[in-house]
Give the backbone structure.
Amino acid sequence: GEYDYVNNSEHVRAFWEERVKEVADYDNLYTLGMRGVHDGAMKGAKTVNEQKQVLERVLKDQRSLLASYVDKTVANIPQVFIPYKEVLDVYNAGLEVPDDVILMCDDNYGYIRHFPTAAEKARKGGNGIYYHISYWGRPHDYLWLCTVQPGLIYQQMTQAYERGIRKMWVLNVGDIKPGEYQIELFLDMAWDIGEVKKQGVTKHLYRFLEREFGQSVATQTLPVLLEHYRLA
């Protein structure tokens, strides 16, 4: 039936229950909450207040399933809630997320849209970031060329780290092939941000090119890439 927790909750919950039972014996990070299919808003709830009421019920029911099949002490189970797109409006309207759940913000289109408040920094679950170097949607797609400026990644993720987003970083890559360098920059910052700060972005990029292609090609390629990113 419809993926609709207002009008078809019994079957949607059974769908979730079947999946939790299948993966309960593995180490997992469980994403809580609900949106619609194909990256759309949830069905059955039109206003922000209606969506908030449904999400409160969803969180309660999902954690009940986790307690039944994974660990009775549900706070021991790794969980994340991502207030993405319209869900951020619901969160800002006062949706209460359990304290042990990681709260993960996103950039949507290059710029992080929410940084933790003092209260959010104090959460047991901590804070995370979901960042895009590939994007399908408005204002326009970037899928088959990686046009994301490394300096922007460096600035945004440094700001995220300094403002308390340290529990988990996730990168939306899409097709890996055009984004090898941006992936490496992001992961190197997650692994040891201090080392990347020492190098600076340009030197970090040069070292990547030198390792992959040798000194001569790296010296020729670096200014081409820097100009590409400037134009992008």
